[in-house]
Amino acid sequence: MKAKTSLVLFATIAAGALILAVAQLQPSLALSANGGQKQPASLETIFSTLNGKTPNEVYEEIDRLTDSEYQTLLNSIKPRFSAAPPFRCTPDMGTRLCELLSRSSANGVVEPWEFCFNEPIDAGCPAATFCDAYSGRCQSSQGPCFLDQARQNFERGG
After folding, report:
1. Which superkingdom (predicted)?
2. Of 120, 44, 108, which Cα lies nearest the Cα of 82?
3. What CA–CA distance (Å, rounded) separates 120 from 144?
4. What are the CA-CA distances from residue 76 to residues 43, 44, 112 (Å)?
5. What is the DSSP string of 81-130?
């Protein structure tokens, strides 16, 4: 009886270890099961990849997305306002960027690929600001003036 109990206990422990090993290898098994293709990223991962980058970096990241990631991004876009004017792509825009902006412009949401110079309805700048060509975001036009005045007051001892 003792030998059978030990054998059953050993078999149970071995089966549990095998299940844990398979569970840990699951991502790599999934990678090899689909012909070596990487799994599509979640929408949150895609957005976190695009956020906080310069326009050129965002455009490059959009071009690097797999087809399934790109479709996920397209399907996540909130519908445009019904009275919104049509978006017009410029000749220097890539196909993907043009399609993204055509779907997302004038929908009330500033997506990571929308900048003040390419989508003024959603990402446009309010009064007393200007569109920074490098960052694609609005900047205060009064900031440098205030800094100069503060520096001058400091130098005068006032």
Report:
1. Archaea
2. 108
3. 24
4. 8, 11, 13
5. PTTPPPP---TTS-HHHHHHHHHHTTSS---TT--TTT-HHHH---TTEE
pLDDT at 158 over 70: no
Beta carbons of 51 and 133 less than 8 angstroms apart: no
Q: Which residues have a Cβ under 8 Å from the Cβ of 100 and sit 6 or more positions away?
A: 62, 73, 74, 77, 111, 113
CA distance 38 to 41: 9
- Is the pLDDT assigned to residue 33 strictly greater than 80? no
Q: What are the domain boundaries of the chain?
A: 43-124, 125-158
108 vs 2: which has the higher pLDDT: 108
Alpha-carbon distance values, 50 to 62, 98, 145 (Å): 8, 16, 32
